Amino acid sequence: MFPLCMASFGALILSFYLAFTLPQEASINTATSTDISATNFIAYRESLLRYKNANPGASGSIPDSSLTFDPGYIRNYLWFNTISGGVLYVYGNTSNDVLNNLYQKTLNSNLVGTNSSGVLINETGASTGVSLPAIIPSGAIVFVGS
User: Fold this and answer.
1) In whole angstroms, what is the distance from residue 91 CA to residue 107 CA?
2) Span of 13-17, 37-41, 101-105, 117-121 with lowest mean pLDDT
């Protein structure tokens, strides 16, 4: 009888431990994942900026084969690009958590936001007045600028 009581007590302690630590771990994993995605987005943009500076007349979508990525960079295929009118647009469909993290990493830049009917909307929900190319899907996270 005593071993059964000890096993039940151990199971009770284990269940309390899991009930309190698993939600915390999930929150930490989500925060880490969004931070990685935002950093990856910025690194992708940096590669595009290097290409654009070396090729000032470039326009349209720049293929990955033309880009030079930083050592160790792993390309996230959620990101896309286009150069229109000499302006670089980097965009992708992802969560608002990534947008919030990206906004913080760019020091609250008004050049970061989402596409709403062809206009860039910043993280606070205000229109920036920046018109976006039609190729960028509505709701996509966008980073504008050369």
Assistant:
1) 18
2) 13-17
Q: How far apart are the first and last CA of the chain?
A: 74
Q: What is the DSSP string of the chain?
A: -HHHHHHHHHHHHHHHHHHHHHHHHHHHHHHHHHHHHHHHHHHHHHHHHHHHHH-TT--BPPPGGG--PPTT----TTEEEEEETTEEEEEE---HHHHHHHHHHTTS-TTEEEEETTEEEETTS-EEEEE--TTSPTT-EEEE--
- The pTM of the full predicted model, rounded to 2 decimals, is 0.80
Give the separation between CA 76 and CA 71, rounded to whole angstroms: 15
Looking at the DSSP assignment, which residues form a beta bridge with residue 141? 92, 114
Sequence letter at residue 138:
S
Tell me what pLDDT residue 18 has.
57
Cα–Cα distance for residue pair 88/111, rounded to 1 Å: 11
